[in-house]
Every structure is written in C-alpha cells, then in structure tokens.
Design a protein that fits this description.
single chain; 315 residues; mainly alpha; Growth Hormone, Chain: A; 2 domains; disordered N terminus
C-alpha cells in the first residue's frame, strides 16, 4: 500500500516539519493580532505560515511517495467532507468557547454550571450521529452535510436569540446546533475516506483528522481573540475607572470588586460590551456555517437522497 510506504519513507520528515510549522504559525498569528503592539510579530508569523505552506506543497509535489497527494482533492465529495469536518468543529468549539465565557463572566455561572450548559450540544448531536450513519445511503451526503450545516446555522442564531428571552431558548439553540452538526460529523468520514482511492485511504483519514483539529484550532484562536478584541475596543468605562478594565471582562470584574460603590456601574458597562461582542462573534460563527452549507451543497449536488456515499472510482 502506498500509505505504508509513505510512512516508512524518511524523506517525508521534512514534509511533516513544514506541515507542523505552518499550522502552529497560523495559531500564533491569530493570537498575536489581539495583543497590543504585536502587529510586527503577527506579520512575521503570517509570513512564516505562507512560506512554510508553499514549501510543503512544493516538496510534496516532487516526492514519489508524498505525505499528502493533493490530487485527492479533485474529488468534489471528498473536498466537501474536508470542509464539513473543519466547519463543524469550528462551530462546536467556537460556540462552546464563547457560551461558557459569557455565562461565567456575565451571568455568574460556575465552571461546572457553564460546562453542563454547553453539554446540550453533545446531547443534541447524539441522536443525529447515530441516525446519520445508519441512513446515509438512503438520505445521501447532500442532505446530511449541507442540511446539517444549515440547521447548525439556525441553532447558532437561536442561541443568540435566547440571550434576550430565557435560558431555555439558549439550551434549545445549543441542542439544535448539536443535532445539525452531529449529522455532519456522522458522515464526514464516509465522504472523505470513502471517496479517496484505496491506495490513499490512510492519507485521506489523516486529512480528515487534521481538518477537525484545524477547525477547532481556528475557532479557539480566531474567535477567542475576536471576542476579547471587540470587548476591549467597545467597552465604555465609567469615569474614574482604570483603563486596565479594558483588558478583559474578568479584569473588569476584579477591579469592580475593589471599587465598592462604583462596582455596579462598571459591571453593567463591562457586561453590555461583552454581550455586544458575543453577538458579533455569534454572527461570525453563523456566517462560516452558512457559507460552508452552501459550498458543500454545491460540491455534493450529485449525492442527494438514494445516492451512494462513495465514488465509483474510489476503490
């Protein structure tokens, strides 16, 4: 098998190094763009990301047994599966990240309470994960992946809507999001591995795993930095309050605990700014999921109900 030879080929160590360097540089770039006076470092990290990625692609194209054969991405169903993996984890990780922060910092939830709240995503995903894999050959990849991402988008907006209504609506939004993205993850592996040539099955499986990891990595680094940056730039502090309260919501709460009579005004200002930032980040998550739903639906237009999850030339 080609994959076995690829693993044993020592010349691929350089390719592995380039892959890891590119991915870590992306993370560093996103984190440093939020820190003050860090644009030079962020620019340097971005340049390293681009160069490392280009060197990785160039080296792989020259190898007889590449670590990653980019020809596998010519299959539209496989490409849709890769995008679905990354988008689904981006949505799950991003939503859980910002919801736990919001309810701990603004609503006063304990870490345990916030963790139990976002577990609604997993509860919502449980039935769709089981049913999606069981009925993929009847329903088709198009409905489960494209439709699942679209339903996840609805769930994200419902979660945001729930902030202005009641906790029950928030939980309902998380459950709907989990159900939609659970259906995506239940068949993403079939779309990726099932549509790769048999000699590239192990390679495709690795691509699937990296796609999930990359989606979660982007969510935490990008959305976490965006949430903090929006809060810092948008908070309107009461007169006489230290600018250190702009650094983060928890810093504002710490300062409020020391201010006595001025604490209520500071907490209110910080909470308002954080909620505004939360809603913007929610829109970003929903936009990513909706765009992914559209793109994957186009890629999977020949994989509707009753169609096979696998390409006829994949094995």
């Amino acid at each position: 098998m080609t994959d076995a030879i690829t693993i044993q080929n020592p010349r691929n160590r350089g390719g592995s190094t380039g892959h890891v360097l590119a991915k870590r540089s992306v993370t560093f770039t996103e984190i440093r763009t939020h820190a003050p006076s860090s644009w030079a470092l962020a620019g340097t990290a971005l340049a390293v990301t681009v160069v490392a990625g280009m060197l990785f692609v160039r080296r792989q194209a020259r190898l007889t047994y590449p670590l990653l054969d980019f020809a596998i991405f010519r299959n539209s169903a496989l490409m849709a599966g890769v995008l679905a993996c990354a988008s689904a984890l981006f949505g799950v990780a991003g939503l859980q990240l910002i919801v736990t922060q919001r309810f701990q910092l603004v609503a006063g939830f304990s870490p345990l309470e916030a963790g139990l709240l976002v577990s609604a995503v997993a509860l919502g995903a449980l039935p769709s994960v089981v049913l999606g894999g069981a009925f993929v050959h009847r329903i088709g990849l198009l409905v489960l992946i494209g439709g699942g991402l679209a339903l996840g988008t609805v769930g994200v907006f419902l979660t945001s809507f729930g902030l202005h209504v009641s906790l029950g609506w928030v939980i309902a939004g998380l459950v709907v999001t989990g159900f939609g993205l659970g259906s995506v993850m239940s068949v993403a592996s079939s779309a990726v591995v099932g549509n790769a040539p048999s000699s590239r099955a192990g390679m495709a499986s690795s691509v699937e795993g990296v796609s999930y990891e990359f989606g979660a990595l982007l969510a935490v680094a990008l959305l976490g930095s965006l949430l903090a940056g929006l809060y810092s730039s948008g908070v309107v502090l009461p007169a006489g309050v230290s600018d250190n309260a702009r650094d983060s919501m928890d810093q504002a709460l710490a300062i409020a605990a020391q201010n006595g009579t001025d604490s209520a005004a500071l907490i209110a200002a910080a909470s308002t700014a954080f909620d505004r930032s939360f809603e913007i980040v929610i829109v970003v998550i929903a936009a990513v999921l909706s765009i992914s739903a559209l793109v994957t639906s186009v890629l999977l237009r020949n994989h509707g109900p009753g169609s096979s999850a696998f390409s006829s030339d994949s094995h």
